[in-house]
Amino acid sequence: MPENLLTSIREKKAPETKKKEKPDGFLATSIAYAKDDSGIDARIVTYHSPKTPISEQYRMIRTNLQRVNPENPPRLIALSSSLHREGKTTTSVNLAVAMAHDLNKNILLVDCDLRKPNVHNLLGLRMEGGMSDILTRGVELDAVFKKTRAENLTVLTSGKIPSNPSELLGSHRMRDLLVELKNRFDYVIVDTPPVLAITDTGILGALVDGVVVVVQTWRTQREALDRARSFLSNAHANIIGYILTGVEYFVPGYLANYGYHYGYGQYHGYYAHSEEV
């Protein structure tokens, strides 16, 4: 495991007698896709359960990010993973909510996965009206910014899925847009596609202050992680840390396991044309 591990996101483990197995071996829980009247998915524990041990891990990530370079900490931060189903989007949203709540600063969460966006689903927002509309039609930023129930958090969703995402993300307009976003917000968290699935994250990695790689326990293979690191390095991306998800521990009285591996099952099909890993 890389030395600059920002933290491990631990999951509350239910007693063996309380577990139910899905056919694919993932833990099934009654809260996996639940939403309340806020529209925010139950997996966003930093919103629904800010005082739990899991939420505290996200605060640790926030603190460690500020320590990366204390005099000039990264403020434009991309999150990715080697492959799909490693928890990157859930981690991105939880981190953004935690930063908005605890720092009392203006935080922007951007969905730059223009092929298989999911940020809007986790926050109960419409996908339409977002990044792709700015890049293709010149829509003004203020017309597509979205607010949530999470205080101090603004969201820029992906917008309509374009036919040429790599070209859009590598355009001069995208470079200028990221500069503008950084000037307008205290921190910008960018959710990106898996590194080895498509080239988009390499393009974005060179434009942000730093990249955080999400690694899931018992899922991410070392070979895949090594290839992802090599790819990002060759793309001149600055890897500032790693987040380990899916670490389980038992807390008496809890019957739920927050499964950070939920919700990414469609990536493999969408990126079927990409290289085998």
Word description of this protein:
The protein has 277 residues and is α/β, with parallel strands linked by helices. 33% of the residues lie in helices and 17% in strands. The protein has one domain: P-loop containing nucleotide triphosphate hydrolases (Rossmann fold), CATH 3.40.50. It has 11 helices and 8 strands. The chain has an 8-stranded mixed β-sheet with strand order 1-8-7-2-6-3-5-4, sandwiched between helices. The relative contact order is 0.23.
CATH hierarchy: architecture: 3-Layer(aba) Sandwich
Order of helices and strands: EHHEHEHHHEEHHEHEHEH
Average pLDDT for all residues? 82
Q: Helical content, roughly?
A: 25-40%
CATH class division: Alpha Beta
Q: Note the beta-strand portion.
A: 15-25%
| Largest sheet composition | 8 strands, mixed
End-to-end separation? 19 Å
Radius of gyration: 18 Å
Total helical segments:
11
The structural domain count equals 1
Low-confidence runs: 12-33, 254-277
Strand order of the largest sheet: 1-8-7-2-6-3-5-4
The CATH homologous superfamily is named P-loop containing nucleotide triphosphate hydrolases
Query: Which structural class is indicated by helix and strand composition?
Result: alpha/beta
At CATH level 3, the topology is Rossmann fold
What gross morphology would you assign?
Answer: globular
DSSP, total strands: 8
Helices and strands, with pairings:
Elements: E1 5-12, H1 45-48, H2 53-67, E2 76-81, H3 88-103, E3 107-111, H4 119-123, H5 131-137, H6 141-144, E4 146-147, E5 153-156, H7 165-169, H8 172-184, E6 187-191, H9 200-205, E7 210-216, H10 222-234, E8 239-249, H11 267-270
Parallel strand pairs: 1-8, 2-6, 2-7, 3-5, 3-6, 7-8
Antiparallel strand pairs: 4-5
Helix pairs in contact: 2-3
